[in-house]
Amino acid sequence: MRIFTNKSIKALFIGMSLFLCCNTILSQVILWQFHGNCPLALFMLSLFMGCGILLLSFCYFHKQHKIMETAVAEIEDYLTGDTDARIECDEEGELYRLFHSVNTLVSVLNAHTENEFRTKEFLKDTISDISHQLKTPLAALNIYNGILQSETENLPDLKEFTILSEQELDRIEALVQNLLKITRLDAGTIIIEKNFENVSDMMHDIEQHFAYRAKQEQKELILSGDDDISLFCDREWMIEAVSNLVKNAFDHTDAGKRICVEWKQMSDLLQIVVEDNGCGIHSEDIYHIFKRFYRSRFSKDTQGIGLGLPLAKTIVELHGGNMKVDSVLGKGSAFTINLSGLEGNITKLSV
Amino acid sequence: MNLLEVKGISKTYGAGETAVHALKNVSFSVPKGEFVAVVGESGSGKSTLLNMLGALDVPTSGKVWIDGKDTFSMKEKHLTVFRRRNIGFIFQAFNLVPELTVEQNMVFPVLLDYQKPNKKYLEDLLDILNLKERRDHLPSQLSGGQQQRVAIGRALFTRPALILADEPTGNLDSKNTSEVIALLKEASKKYEQTIIMITHSPGIAQTADRILQVSDGELTDFGRYRE
User: Is the pLDDT of residue A347 over 60?
Assistant: First the structure.
């Protein structure tokens, strides 16, 4: 009898019983009145009852259908982002218990999502705090090391170790800076400030930054591309991304090799390619190089930390673009960035 | 969306010179899954506040939203169903049904909703609350502490989204107290149940995620443990 807690079901059954009763009573009355000689009247009566019951059933199912439709619409709302969507469920009956359970599921899901977000925030803050706090002792160590270096001018053995220390200190500093950058990007709380930047300008900035190193290591850094292409992007982060690729190229090429940065417009996309003819990437590594802290065992670059490429990829993806790599071991590598956001195509961008 | 939103709740008994302001413009919000302790001296308005939150009493002014629903503008019929499904009460005076056994008292709200009680959960609860041997006894045959545990079991059995507890460990010894608090905390983490507990004991209040103080009808938020 629990199905009768639902008001609509109760009403339906009561209605149908009423019709049946009426039909029985009236048919008995008619039979008694006309002594069994009234087929038409009886026929009309049963027709009337049949229609009545059909109508009641139709009304009931139509109402249920509407309720279901509304419930499905609410669930769809929730799925498309309205976390406050709930189904009306404050009536008696199994159906509404079901709706209540769905609502509970929804609020529990929401709570879990919020918790996850808070944990992420907390982690990001922690890493940021630690990184910032590392800067102070690092700075001190750098100073002390500098002093030691100058004091040991005449003690070549000791001096050798101060130079090694300096290298390690630089490594820690680079790691801390990269960590900070990556966590900032990760938490999604960094605002990429986009403006129209001249691509050639940005590339020449990078060229300048690596000019000294190119000369020191006797490698060629070539730029190639039009001067008039403008990209809607965050200048600082975009330079950071391409610089990481160029640095990688430098780290994996020997003296005498060539690194080429090329950019061109392909229909409504901007394509930037950083290519080198250095040692290339081993086929075993190629699926892992964009993972954080990944260090290839074939890599000749023993000073790297493994954050440069993942950082570059994150930056490019935050701009709505993508990055891919082609490489042949021993021949060289080419990193390709594809970006939308060229001047004249701005309406297609979702910021 | 926060599970509980309270805005401007005020309750005044009487009028004119003899008016008693039990609650004065209380506002706060509680996210889902938080364990809140409410502390304050006797007569400060804590129980009144709890009654407002559970829609057992109507405020002079102000509103309460539970899971987005404005409880004071709902029709009585809907409010009854809503309360039954979403709120669990642990009263200071237990309020057990004297004619029903311990077990029946605990499953009573579930039966009111025409549901079949979850046997396993019932056994688990009876076990944790140390009521297994007393399951067929009437409330009149139980000690104060045991009656209180039945009241706690009743509130937990429906797994409501919001549990309102008025001094749930007042009559319990220290072992039972720590077990009940541990049970409440686990429920709050595992099933994301929000718990608002009135307590006199600062030690118990410390186990909560957040402490609110009611003093002379006014609310002070002492903040969250994690902040």
Answer: no
Name the CATH topology of B4-224: Rossmann fold (3.40.50)
> Cβ–Cβ of B114/A92 closer than 8 Å?
yes
Q: If you ran DSSP here, which 8-state letter would residue B5 be given?
A: E
Residues of chain B with Cβ-Cβ distance to A96 below 8 Å are: 81
Q: Which residues contact A220 (CB under 8 A, 6 or more apart)?
A: A214, A257, A258, A259
Please state the φ and ψ torsions of residue A299, each to the nearest 5 degrees: -70, 135
Alpha carbon distance A57, A16 (integer Å): 9
N- to C-terminal Cα distance for chain B? 20
- pLDDT tens sequence across B72-111: 999 998 998 899 889 999 988 888 999 999 999 999 888 8
Q: What is the CA radius of gyration of chain A?
A: 37
Residue-wise pLDDT for A11-35, tens only, equals: 999 999 998 998 888 888 888 887 7
B175 CA to chain A: closest CA distance, Å? 31
- What is the token pair recorded at A260? 């080429």
Q: How far is CA A19 from the centre of its chain?
A: 60
pLDDT tens readout for residues A201-227: 999 999 988 888 888 889 989 999 888
Each residue of A231-289: pLDDT tens digit?
888 888 899 899 999 998 888 888 888 999 999 988 888 899 999 998 888 887 887 88
CA-to-CA distance for A86 and A88, rounded, in angstroms? 7
Neighbours of A296 (CB within 10 A): 17
Query: Using CA atoms, how far apart are residues A222 and A257, in angstroms rounded to an integer?
Result: 11
**A108·B191 Cβ contact <8 A:** yes
Mean pLDDT, chain B, rounded, equals 88
Mutate to test the interface with B, among A103, A107, A110 (most CBs of B within 10 A): A107
Phi and psi angles of residue B39, each rounded to the nearest 5 degrees, phi first = -115, 160
| Cβ-defined contact of B33 to A92 (cutoff 8 Å) | no
A91–B33: do the CB atoms touch at under 8 Å? no
Question: What pLDDT sits at residue A63?
Answer: 92
Q: Residue B221's CB: how many other CB atoms inside 10 A?
A: 13
Contacting residues of B for A84, CB less than 8 Å apart: 1, 68
What pLDDT score does B116 carry? 84
- Which tens digit of pLDDT belongs to each residue from A132-188? 888 889 999 999 998 988 888 888 888 888 888 888 898 888 888 877 777 777 766
Interface TM-score (ipTM) > 0.85: no
Confidence of residue A350 (pLDDT cuts 50, 70, 90): very low
Element (H, E) at B25: strand B20-30
Residues in chain A with CB shorter than 8 Å from the CB of B115 are 97
Closest Cα to residue A180, out of A134, A245, A115, A242? A134
Using the structure block, give the residue that is written with the tokens 């220390």. Answer: A165
Helix, strand and coil percent figures for chain B, each rounded to 5? 40, 25, 35
Task: Give residues with Cβ within 8 angstroms of A305, minimum separation 6.
Answer: A171, A174, A175, A178, A293
The answer to whether residue B84 neighbours chain A at the CB level (below 8 Å) is no
**In chain B, where are the structural domains located?**
4-224
SS3 at position B41: coil
